[in-house]
Amino acid sequence: MKSLIAGNWKMNGIGQARVEIESLIERFGGSMPGDRDILICPPATILRDFARSYSDEGIQFGGQDCHANTSGAHTGDISAEMIADTGASHVIVGHSERRADHGESDEIVKAKANAALRAGLTPIICVGETREQREAGIAQSVVGTQLEGSLPDAAGVFVVAYEPVWAIGTGLTPTIQDIAEMHDFIRAKTPESTRLLYGGSVKPGNAQEILAISNVNGALVGGASLKADDFFPIINAAPGQM
Ligand SMILES: O=C[C@H](O)COP(=O)(O)O
Fold first, then answer.
1. β-strand 159-162 against 218-221: which pairing, if any?
2. Which residue, 123, 122, 120, 115, is CA-closest to 70?
3. Residue 242 resides in a domain
4. What's the complex ipTM?
5. Is residue 114 one of the residues assigned to a domain?
6. Which of 90, 91, 160, 220 to mutate to test the pocket of ligand 1 (most atoms within 8 A of CB)?
């Protein structure tokens, strides 16, 4: 299976975004290595522009969220079909920031994952425990419940991203053993072909060690995906075709 290194730009990306992406392409000599998949999920306002400008260089693009419905009276929302129409191939659903900021339940996340598949997109479904849950020894049961409730029932390929909430943007990461155990646990609950990403403070300094863990098939990178200086070595740390 090919590794997938995905950058989630969150609510960032005006100003230097174009410079950074062009610098990244330049470092790879004009086009991305074909033995791993590289995805960038910028804000929706620049998704179409970027998907059209840079897909020839081998970068894939994705949305950060979608509505479950195709269209309708949902002010401020964007449907999976609209994201597909930009030229994007993926969409993140159920990120912990959406679960927390917008009260998204597993049921809503599942509906969004189904919508993504309906639109021909690959959903990246995020799961992960809080610090309190890990300290209480219930991380696996929390993630198990999220998986049961959030995975799509529509047929199609999806990706799962394990992102411990307490590791996001904090510089903290679980131990290699904890990541390995959780990924083995998720692997047992997902089809063999499902790519499992780790996310949460992935940086140039820890990427190689994390990406070498069995059942870690790539990374979902936040802050370090915004700068070519950081994203380039993370992409390079990913094994090629596994
Ligand atoms: O979606 C990405 C994650 O939330 C990780 O963010 P981070 O790499 O800034 O910790």
1. unpaired
2. 115
3. no
4. 0.99
5. yes
6. 220
**What is the pTM assigned to this prediction?**
0.97
Residue nearest (by alpha carbon) to ligand 1 atom 8:
222
Task: Let me know: does 47 contact 88? Beta carbons within 8 Å.
Answer: yes
95 catalytic residue (yes or no): yes
Kindly state whether residue 93 falls inside one of the protein's structural domains: yes
Question: Count of CB atoms within 10 A of residue 219's CB?
Answer: 27
Residue with tokens 């903290």: 172
CB proximity list for 36: less than 8 A, separation 6 or greater: 2, 3, 4, 5, 218, 235, 238, 239, 240, 241
Name the helix (H) or strand (E) containing 3.
strand 3-8
CATH at 111:
3.20.20.70
Query: Over the stretch 50-100, which tens digit does the pLDDT of each residue have?
Result: 999 998 999 999 999 999 999 999 999 999 999 999 999 999 999 999 999
Q: Write out the residue range of the structural domain in which residue 124 sits.
A: 3-237
The pick from 64, 221, 225, 231 for probing ligand 1's pocket by mutation, whose C-beta has the most ligand atoms within 8 angstroms, reads 221
- How far, in Å, CA of 88 to CA of 93, rounded? 14
Q: Is the dihedral of CA 213, 175, 232, 226 positive or negative?
A: positive
Domain total of the chain: 1
Pocket around ligand 1 at a 6 A CB cut-off: 8, 95, 163, 168-169, 199-202, 220-224
Q: Is residue 143 part of a domain?
A: yes
